[in-house]
Predict the structure.
Amino acid sequence: MNILSPIKTVRSGFTLLEMLLAIAICAVVLVAINAVFFGALRLRNRAAQSIEEDLPMQQALRIMKRDLQGIVPPGGTLAGPFQTATAGGAMGQPPGSTGFHTCTGVIDETSPFSDIQKVAYYLKPAVEQTIGQDLVRAVTRNLLSSVQEQPVEQWIMGGVQRMQMSYFDGASWRDTWDSTTPDLTTGATNLVPKAIKVQIEMAVANGQPRRTPVELLVPIVMQGRTNQTQSSSGGQQQ
């Protein structure tokens, strides 16, 4: 008769020290994941805020670039002078504005106007109590009216500290331009700049550093007509 000896079973498990070590490792991993997650969330929020702040600027630059590229040569029935207003608000434009004619008018079946319109850009006090000024685009569509039509102001963006337009005449940059004034070299009028540079500086709150102005450079690829007459071979003016 075989008597089987009892088999002793050994039960294994985690010790308290091992459990504490595993919990500590999990806590460290969770802290690292939490730091990465909230870091990515803050980066996403900053990127979204930056895009929201830059969106009005990009929209304004796109509108201004389109208008400047569509400049119509001064003279003729629809195209008037290219002029910058003086500090006194001369030339029928607000002080510090730049007015010109451009072929960016919207044409549809219901509009009685042509695609040529007069636009002027200038700054005016903000309507709301915010820092800086509002950038405004004033548009005149009915250019053939015998009665001077009041331009329609279109709000472009707010919070602007300064806007400056410079005009390249082929040799140097000017702060003002008047196509009705004879050119010093050729004596011709109805000329437009060869390039226009726009600088926009945004306003900042007190104590914050000034922001670098945003610059837009638009080449003008056409030249306006002049008031000079040409003589024929018989000495008669045409």
